[in-house]
């Protein structure tokens, strides 16, 4: 936890409380409880652990296991209507692998936690015509061609439609696609992955946890087995990166759009930059 994380987490929890019709005294009580929790946490937790706790609270308060379900369906359906358009763009491009990869990273803009105001079409245009701030995409392609088993860590609903396009383009028989074990924010669940057809191009498994990240101290034994056996891991999004950053035991490629200055500082890039970074070539 960096000192900037505390400010961000308090603002995020405040937005979360304000986005639902809770009584003011309920909001005040839960914010005070959260501030006490942060004070006692003493910098030992990852931000994703704290976000997990906050969204558990909101689900309990709403008595709703998946408050973002309708938003996820809208995001998935919206991108699915464009699927054939982008599929043609990929197939007609000089480098289908790179084009599909860029679109998969562009889809990472769909994030109701980091930035609920986003323009998907504008982001796709930008990612197709921008230089990556870190670009290990050629190494990624080589590693994927050599791999028997690939573990792909999914991130957000909507974005997963572009993951599907990338996996279709990759056409690899050994891909395992991991989703969250329970709904949290607009992160992908088994229901979401199956609804867009990810299971046509990968074996879909649950990671067994409800954090908006991949936190190895929370995941299931099934996930850990796949994680340990995978030759290459593709980690989509900032949340997964936060959980795995600093990991050197596996070959991990981080694919994301950078959404906060702290992560930008850790990667040596700017907020808003697009990144394909191999963990063995990173400083952190």
From TrEMBL:
Gene3D superfamilies given in the database record: Uncharacterised protein PF01937, DUF89, domain 2 (1.10.285.20), Uncharacterised protein PF01937, DUF89, domain 3 (3.40.50.10880)
Occurrences of domain Damage-control phosphatase ARMT1-like metal-binding (ranges): 2-273
Pfam families: ARMT1-like_dom (PF01937)
Protein name: Damage-control phosphatase ARMT1-like metal-binding domain-containing protein
The organism's place on the tree of life at top rank: Bacteria
InterPro entries tied to this protein: ARMT-1-like_metal-bd_sf, ARMT1-like_metal-bd, PH1575-like
